[in-house]
Amino acid sequence: MRWMTGAAAALAAPVRSQTSGPSIKAVVFDAFPVLDLRPVFALAEQLFPGNGKALGDAWRTRLFEYQWLRALSGRYADFLEAANGALVFAAKAQKVDLTAEKRRRLVQSWLALKAWPDAPAALRALKKDGLRLAFLSNATPQMLEAAIRNSSLEGVFEQAISTDRIRSYKPDPRAYQLGVDVLGLPAKEILFAAFAGWDATGAKWFGYPTFWVNRAGAPAEELGAPPDGSGPGMDDLVRFVRERR
Q1: d(Cα 59, Cα 156) in Å, to the nearest integer?
Q2: How many CA atoms lie within 13 A of 54 on its CB side?
Q3: What percent helix, strand, coil does the chain show, rounded to 5?
């Protein structure tokens, strides 16, 4: 799966706010600026040659829709359970034969995620600079703990905070509140690093300064709350944080 070419790369070029704010003391990350999710969808293409991309796109879209619907309706199911249901729906919609074994392999692939190539060095640079680091993700605790082990990032994150604690999902404000509660810092001193534009918006609405690691080269959301900075990779995030300190 190719994430950025041509115009997409231009969309993801670093953008920085011209305003300054309180010093950043911690950075909380959604899982996917750090964890490379491309192997999940590469496996879909491997299992369904020629149909994997369409299946993967439908699965990803339905996964987030199911999470948001469950959060709004109070019918919580964790990330992996939601992923399982979304995959079954996507397979039916795409008219592919999803056997039990293929379904198991695809859902379990979320537990095999590793860091993006640029992530470990960037995280260690932030930690060396004295920043407190944590995950704040819709992923399950099991997913986050497995990814830390898979990526040899033990000792880098102070906390791996899953919204499973409140049985809901971002952009529920209670999900973002977890970062404040667990780290014991005001929101204005915690930078939220998002993978998705909607997550950057949700964090901004909550009160965090935000940086959008826009690896997909996606256009900005039209929701009236642009991130304080953005760029296509973790090195852009490191530069942004250093400028704010």
Answers
A1: 31
A2: 10
A3: 50, 15, 35
Residue 81: Cβ-neighbour burial (10 angstroms; 0-12, 13-18, 19+): middle
Report the candidate in 114, 171, 110 with the shortest Cα–Cα distance to residue 137. 171
In this structure, the number of other CB atoms found within 10 A of the CB of residue 238 comes to: 21
Please name the helix (run of DSSP H) or strand (run of DSSP E) that holds residue 178, with its range, or none.
Answer: helix 173-183
Residue of 30, 118, 164, 228 marked active site: 30
Could you tell me where the beta strands, DSSP code E, fall in the chain?
15-16, 26-29, 35-36, 114-115, 132-137, 159-162, 190-194, 210-213, 229-231
126-184 pLDDT per residue, tens:
999 999 999 999 999 999 999 999 999 999 999 999 999 999 999 999 999 999 999 99
The string of pLDDT tens digits covering residues 10-30 is 344 455 444 456 799 999 999
**Residue 172 among the catalytic residues:** no
Note the pTM of the prediction, 2 decimals: 0.90
